[in-house]
Input
Amino acid sequence: MIIFDNLKKYREIPYNYTSFSDKEVVCRFLGEESWELLNQLRQNRNTGRSARMLFEVLGDMWAVNRNPYLQEDLIKNKRRWKALTEALYSRLNQIRSRADSNEKVLELVHSADQAVDGFKHCLSEFKNNKKRIKKALLKVTHNNNIRFDALSRSSHATDATDWRVEYPAVVITPDTEIEIADIVKTCIELGLTIIPRGGGTGYTGGAIPLDTQTAVINTEKLSFIEPIQNQDGLHSINVGAGVVTKRVSEAAAANNLVFAVDPTSQDACTIGGNVAMNAGGKKALRWGTTIDNLLSWKMVMPDGNWLQ
Output
């Protein structure tokens, strides 16, 4: 029997049901130097109680950090939030009292103290950020189109890859394409990273927020479909970015025509996403990909101006 001791992976942080490893969680909260300190101290554990308490602190913070539903609950319940942060400090004080003046342990606790200090204010910062964003966006779109709820944020944190990095600060669902230019300009003024999103069926990670200060603009409401036009034998159809690809294929079939774009996700993907990713499908072998069948388009550029 061969035992690969060097390949053993430690996963000691509780409540971590994400794809992030212990190393990634520790580095996020405490920094890479703290991870190195943990590895140096790992061989010197006696009861392991201090290590468990530190991992519990990290696990509590990580669970809140990765769960918008918990965040909503704690924002409403200040007493529960206070009890949580006090429990975190209590654990760190216990670790400090058991450190026996070990400089490496004390350095770790100091880093953890700083992390808890930042964590203590994260919900109030989220509330203030929400007010700031909403106040600005209300000038350019309807209140119902500005979403900070846990369901909207969590459902826009990933795409078909199921890869998650950050949750967006806000999800915007404009009613018409006329609104988008002003929405983009406002997001730029707010310092937000902007991600346009359609059906969320992509496998490239293009719709995944990598920064907490991200605004996802969901285009699924832009679902208008105009009648097929025939000009000198050239058939074309004008549709919104949020139209599901299957609907365009059905419109073509109803007129004894073929729409060349037929990715396997055509029942859920949108035309805007097809254009952005130059989608194809089995029909592309004969009639080309999306770009080959694109007669004209208009879009809002990253500076908030229209291009047609």
User: Anything to note?
Assistant: The chain has a mean pLDDT of 93. Residues 10-120 form one domain. The chain has three domains: 10-120, 124-218, 229-307.
